[in-house]
Amino acid sequence: MMSKDEQVFCLKRADIEPEFGGVLPQGAFTGFELEPILGLSQYFLPRSVAEHDPGYKQIIPYQLFRCQDRFFVYQRGGGVGERRLAGQLSVGLGGHINSGDAKNGILTIAAYYEALFREREEELILSETVTTHFLGWINDDSDPVGQVHLGAVHLCETAGVSAIHIREQGEDIHERGWWSAEEILAQGDRFEKWSILAMRLATTYG
Predict the structure, then answer these.
(1) pLDDT band for position 41 (50/70/90)?
(2) Which fold has domain 7-202?
């Protein structure tokens, strides 16, 4: 679990915005590839600083798991690293990238995916192969959590619902089963905002 003093991967908002047309969009959006964004000037800041400075965006790989037409849902307990999200349902497994993920101080695209896989392995037990697709981005500057984070959404597909389970020694999260998109959206007020935004990308893919 990440400490508040750990160095987390960030990009300057002022550097990101020109890549997205001058203003960072709100909500869920596509059309901007991952690698050029990672090619911007990179920063590793103490998490205690980055969490309160909207001049930087922490880039968060956000993974959704789908089996046919159903999505893996979990609930955050009170011991999760982001306490402002405790108690909410989620379809996205998200985690900070830290300085230890970078190679020689630079987060390459290969190192980014290694961090994504690391987060997955820390929290989940996978008994089958998972196919991963980059979908796009989610951004929500309407609250303090969203103001300092930018989500890179990945859809992870598996052939069977028995292929994924939460690792007991991982973060304080709890399985709530496999839900259809309709069930998730119908209970959207129980889910973290990012989950609903990410579903807009996932439901239009494949």
Answers:
(1) very high
(2) Nucleoside Triphosphate Pyrophosphohydrolase (3.90.79)
